[in-house]
Amino acid sequence: MIEIWPQANNFANKLIDSFKQYDREDIDDKYHHIDKNFRWENYVWTSKNFRRAHIEIVDATESKKMWVMHMCIFPHYNDPSPIFGFDIVCGKNKITGAFHDFSKVDDCYLYKTYLNRMEGLNWSKPRELPDWAKQIFSPQMLAVGNIQTQEEFDQLTKTVIDNLQLYIYNIGVGYADKDYKEQHNHYCKYQKMNPHTPAMMVNFGVNKDVFTQFMNDVLFQEKHE
Predict the structure, then answer these.
(1) 47-78 per-residue burial string, b: 16 or more CB within 10 A, e: under 16
(2) Which domains does the chain possess?
(3) How far, rounded to the nearest angstrom, does the alpha carbon of residue 71 sit from its chain's CA centroid?
(4) What are the φ/ψ torsions at residue 194 (nearest 5 degrees)?
(5) Chain mean pLDDT for the chain
(6) Which of 16, 156, 166, 179 has its CA 20 to 30 A from that of 86?
């Protein structure tokens, strides 16, 4: 049995450090909360290579015995690169769920490379997805749960870091004479249909209206102009 929370925080710091060379965007103070029982932090970066990168950390280890991280990177609207996603939910001694994907925007080198790379992961545990998830996730989405050993934890985190390096190195390389705003909006629309995200945050003590606004303003922005 391993202690997950300290390692999860170290892993989050490594991911955050991956973006230190990019421009940090200010976020409304109402989307941050830090006290001894609950920590909610959000980081957003922009760059010439990607439109938006977001990391959200929810530390409810004192009050609810849970630690959660969400990460999403959106390409610029004229880039066919996929959307990078990663979510992890941790109890004290095990990861109850972790999900990672390059969600398709268009056929491109980066998306195909991800599919080929992930095809050989025999420790991923495919599961029946809800309808909203089937709309946006790739056939090779990584889905694991009940991780309780150091080997499994290291395997998961290495996969995510390796894929992040692949993504950051290649995103923004090939632009197309297209506008993929509709595909990005499609992804955000269906992500916001996940009922577990707002339910979890309200359970942690975040005001429901504040979190609904957060989903639209920060988590999964849609652009229609």
Answers:
(1) bebbbbbbbbbbbbbeebebbbbbbbbbbbbe
(2) 4-178 (3.40.1500.20)
(3) 3
(4) -70, 110
(5) 92
(6) 179
Is there a contact between 22 and 53 (Cβ–Cβ < 8 Å)? Answer: yes
Distances in Å between the Cα of 144 and the Cα atoms of 44, 88, 110 are 26, 9, 23
Residues 138 and 82: their CA atoms lie apart, in Å, by 10
Q: At what angle do helices 150-170 and 4-17 cross, to 10 degrees?
A: 10
Cβ contacts of residue 120 below 8 Å, gap of 6+? none
The pLDDT of residue 125 is 63
Contacts of 192 by beta carbon, 8 Å cutoff, 6+ apart: 215, 216, 219, 220
Residues pairing with 73 in the sheet: 53, 84
Tell me if 89 sits within 8 A of 99, measured CB to CB: no
C-alpha count within 13 angstroms, C-beta hemisphere, residue 59:
18
For every residue of 126-156, DSSP letters joined together read --PPPHHHHTT--TT-EEE--B-SHHHHHHH
Residue 88 dihedral angles phi and psi, to the nearest 5°: -145, 135
Q: Is residue 99 helix, strand or coil?
A: strand
**What single-letter amino acid sits at 213?**
Q
Q: What is the pLDDT of residues 34-90, one digit of tens each?
A: 888 899 999 999 999 999 999 999 999 999 999 999 999 999 999 999 999 999 999
d(CA 211, CA 192): 11
